[in-house]
Amino acid sequence: MNMMSYDVVVIGGGPAGMAAALKSKEYGCTVALLERDADLGGILNQCIHPGFGVEYFKEELAGPEYAGRFTDLVNSAGIDVYIQTMVTAVNPERSVMAINQNGVMQISAGAVVLAMGCRERTRGAIMIPGYRPAGVMTAGIAQRYINIENLKPGSKAVIVGSGDIGLIMARRMYLEGIQVLGVYEIMPYVNGLIRNVKQCLEDFAIPLYLSETVIDIQGKGRLSGVVTARVDENFRPVSGTEKHIECDLLLLSVGLIPENDLSVRVGVELNTATQGPLVNNGLETNVPGIFACGNVLHVHDVVDNVTREALKAGEQAARYAKKTGVKPKEPRKILAGENIRYTVPNYYHPGAGEKVDICFRVSRPISDGYLVVSSPERVILEGKPRGFRPGEMEKFSLSPKLQGKDCSDVILSVRRRSNGN
Amino acid sequence: MERYDVAIIGAGIVGTATAWKLARYKIKTVLLEALPDLACGTTKANGGIIHAGYDPKTGTLKAKLNVQGASEYPVLAEQLGFRYKQTGSLVVGFNEQDEQYLKMEYQNGKANGVPDLKIIYGEEIRALEPRINPQATVALHAPTAGVLDPFEAAYAFAENAHQNGVDVYFQFKVTGITRKSDGFVLHSSSGNVEAGMVVNAAGVYSDVVAALAGSQDFTVTPRIGEILVLDKEISNPVRNVIFPIPSPTKGKGIVVIPTVSGNVLVSATARNIEDKENISTSREGLQELLQGGRKLVADISAGQVIREFSGLRAVSSAGEDFNIGPTPGIRGFITAGGIQSPGLASAPAIASLIRDCLAEEGLVLREKPDYNPLRKAGVRFSALSAEEQDRLIKENPDYGQIVCRCEYVTAGEIIDAIKTPLGATTIDGVKRRSRAGMGRCQGGFCQPRILAILSRYLQKPPEQIWLEYADSPVVMGMLKGGCRQ
Amino acid sequence: METNLICISCPKGCHLKVSLAGENIQEVKGNRCPRGKEYAESEIKDPRRVLTTTVLVKGGRLPVIPVKSQTGLPKGLIIAAMKILRETAVSSPVRRGDIVVENILGTGINIIAARDVASAGTQSKY
After folding, report:
1. Could you tell me if C58 and C99 lie in one domain?
2. Confidence of residue A328 (pLDDT cuts 50, 70, 90)
């Protein structure tokens, strides 16, 4: 068994892991970056569509380009990259077990950055009744078959769920000559980004059905068809609205879940709203020296935000490893109030003189609302009125001035301006 | 045409156990399976409970074979290298009426010869099963009950049979049976075989197979049972198989089962249907399972579900009991019909009974001197210590490549699953042998990789690799580039 | 005349209200940044989209390589461009940024490789 030691060990070589590793390296740490796939880049390698890097690089890049730019930086930074290397366990003393084709490695780490990304929700998770034929797959598997493996997953597709990957795959399949019969979303609104509805569906006249879903899957060997139906406000199928659709491919784009198997086993506490770790404003989990960033922390819609978050995690991990961080005071809570599904981070340390970057998502679409930041005693700030959608991650910076002298817990809410939505 | 002493129709748990039982004798045996793999029917879609045997009515075949079968499994698991876990079981009651019922079950169990049964109350129940519904007041505890993966047991039986000389044909669907003076000809679209005697272990199709041989004695009604698979539990897992008080109409009811791999099953609904191929799940069934599961373990939730599936159980018109034995008027034709619960628990004993029936029909059984009763279990990488893992990777680097992230299954194990005799030829075959794709992402990451490995080792293009059943390709060929290079 | 657009320049997806006099834009409302106005102008006069797809790689570690148009192609030419790219193959190794098709359909826009693909051989691929 190979015993090693690094200041910072980063688990996962996608955009989050690469940015975190680069930042830790910048701070003079020895860094190991562990990636289970044969290439760095994570899911970006199969996300061949454009739209990445608009904020970070001020350019519209394809996913693999964004990954490639960071891969080049990582490869020239003096970071020890281990590809095809899978972490099997982490312990609270930050000993990391990993395996690859050379054997088992035990790495003792000054700090650990969790950057394992997320996975797709499956048919099982949403419990669609019916048969279990071939041809029912998540949008991400279809994306891999088409974009990496050059394999055709089917010829006539129905998409259930309006997550971004599903919308993007609708366009991708259309361009490759696979018929796309429609996108069915059980909610009364779209889950993905509105721009993807425009450029992936509307541009190609692919129908979108809201408040409709797939209620039956047919076919014993290969998928032969599905039954769709409208749903009522409790998401129950409305009888009489059933439609039979002949198809040989059903893609599921019904959400992503942070992949925290390793984290949970080391004792990291999760936020039930995100399924990602509860963290403070240094992105540190409840286990000292273990940090989290990217989609393992919460599912992002834009990679530029992942990078930004990961740079912060990389910096904090480096400081922890080098013991240059100030001993912080008791943390204060950052709470999700009215119409807020979650916030990241969940805690902040007052008196550090730093602004606290907060990401949040609303729990439902609000066309005319405004952000309210308050402490238990008073309203700290009210934002300008505008629209909010659950599909878009919102950002807010709590400046030292706003934190005030009392540095109390902070509650974020989005209130409606009028009762009429 | 190949001639055998015995042909077994159906490679489920009964067929494979019978093949294993017969493999020790100097006879030529063939196991015929209609589907592309072993254990693809009732056996794969089963809760995997080895019932202790208190439930079947004393004096029935079910009672006798269950208790006998259950007592054999712990030893068989060692010899044949499959996982078996003696979890014990609890039948849980909530009131005095339930207590009366459990006392009757206790007496029935004692009469059946089930060891160590005990009626327990309140805190005793919670000590054994901390997650039990707090309202439970009384329970029948059967410490000898256990669990296994039914397909894993079937693979073990079949592989041991095969290594001791039993032939196995897949996609051999018997479509006709001709009786001859010295036996039978079994016809299929892929050829015919001749056999002196036939064992009909065709599950829900056992009536159809019997009819092909000329016997119309019984019919089989499929009873569909839907099952939920819950995610692995890291802290405070369910420890026992937990039963409700059975209802007269719904059989054993909805049971909570900890599996050998650390998942929990909620199993099963029960509804008689017509179609012997219908293994669909329903909205109502899924709700019924969640509600039923929560009666026993209150914190079960929809969020824990990673998969749902259905299986069929063979309900025979010949009665509630197993219908095992010779067929009147057709010498050498043994039927194992109506093998529903506790069929899995009884399987080793059913195999012995079938052997005895064959002997009575005139089959001469002489033991092979070179019979090997042992089968080596395949590598299960995730269960090894770090030192063992390291050693294994240095012997074969394929074990250093994890393909299934959820279950930590390596490329080496997937290749083993394919290359082993009677190995996997389908995605689901790999899954059931190696657990790759059985975790919470349900193959979301590993399916394309498993497809690539199957394609390479079977030397078939990806579009010719099936998910499970015939003609179930997961991809339809190359997207661009036309002909293959 | 007024027309509504959804800006696709960034994930915010602003709802734009564009006042038109004939083909000329008089006013754009609803944009949260200057890109919204640029997008509205382009979308009304000459709608364009960056096209991404894959082309075959000969002798590569992967069977296909992702490619993209360096800038937006006229929307009306997307399907024609796809047809050309479906018939295109490149030889490995390919480096990110390499030109795969020069001046596609006479637009003056190149199709370039979006990642590196090494030649087949060294690495195993599960």
Report:
1. yes
2. low
Question: Per the domain annotation, does C106 fall within a domain?
Answer: yes
Mark out chain C residues that contact chain A at CB-CB < 8 A. 6-13, 15, 49-50, 52-54, 56, 62-64, 66, 68, 75, 78-79, 82, 96, 114-116, 123-125
Percent of chain C whose predicted confidence (pLDDT) is above 70 = 96
CA distance C82 to chain A (A): 7
Domain identity same for C34 and C74: no
Amino acid occupying residue B61: L
Six-digit token pair at B375? Answer: 């089968």
Q: What is the DSSP letter of A391?
A: T
Q: What is the pLDDT of residues B123-132, one digit of tens each?
A: 999 999 999 9
Residue keyed to tokens 């003096």: A78
Q: Give pairs for B372-377: CB < 8 Å, separation 24+.
A: B372/B160, B372/B163, B372/B164, B373/B24, B373/B79, B373/B160, B374/B79, B374/B80, B374/B81, B374/B160, B375/B79, B375/B80, B375/B81, B375/B156, B375/B159, B375/B160, B375/B163, B376/B81, B377/B81, B377/B82, B377/B156
Look up the ipTM and state it. 0.93
B273 touches chain A (CB under 8 A): no
Return the structure tokens found at B483: 């002909």
Q: How many CA atoms lie within 13 A of B307 on its CB side?
A: 18
With CB atoms and an 8 Å threshold, state whether C11 touches A197.
no
pLDDT tens-digit readout, B29-40: 999 999 999 999
- Please list, in sequence order, all residues whose beta carbon lies within 8 angstroms of the beta carbon of residue B127, skipping any fewer than 6 positions away: none
Is B51 assigned a catalytic role? yes
Nearest Cα of chain B lies from the Cα of C25 at a distance, in angstroms, of 42
Q: Are β-strands B167-169 and B29-32 bridged in parallel, bridged antiparallel, or unpaired? A: parallel
Q: Which is the catalytic residue, given B51, B141, B162, B187? A: B51
Contacting partners of chain C (3+ CB pairs under 8 A): A, B
| C56 and C107 belong to one structural domain | yes
- Which of C64, C89, C126 has the CB atom closest to B449's CB atom? C126
CA distance A46 to A262: 24
Please check the confidence at residue B276 and state whether its pLDDT lies above 90.
yes
Distance from CA of C21 to the nearest CA of A (A): 24
Cβ of A48 and C78 within 8 Å? Answer: no
Domain of residue C6 covers 2-45
Longest Cα–Cα distance of chain A, Å, equals 67
Buried b (16+ CB within 10 A) or exposed e, B182-191: ebbbbbbeee
- Number of folded domains in chain C? 2
- A331-370 pLDDT, tens per residue? 899 999 999 999 999 999 877 778 899 999 999 999 899 9
Q: Is residue C119 part of a domain?
A: no
Nearest CA to A250 among A118, A141, A120, A119?
A: A141
